Amino acid sequence: MNTSNVATLNERLLGFPEPLRENLARYITEHLDDIQDDMQWSEDPMYLSDDLKEELSRREAAYEENPHEGISWQELENRLLNSR
To answer: Is the pTM of this model over 0.70?
Structure first.
């Protein structure tokens, strides 16, 4: 994670109430090994696990088969923002 991303994350976290920040920190600390395993860390920023490559291939094939199915990123963002 580059310095800019860390600064942005820190800024956003500081906007949360202190009890929530404490809970997040506790959760991350308690589950760090699981999180690291799930993320399949790599020094290469373009690293993709075999599972992720397969999923991306599956999604690409589904899109090519029916490009009008699904929603745009903008529509997804709107739905997420309006669901709060």
So the answer is: no
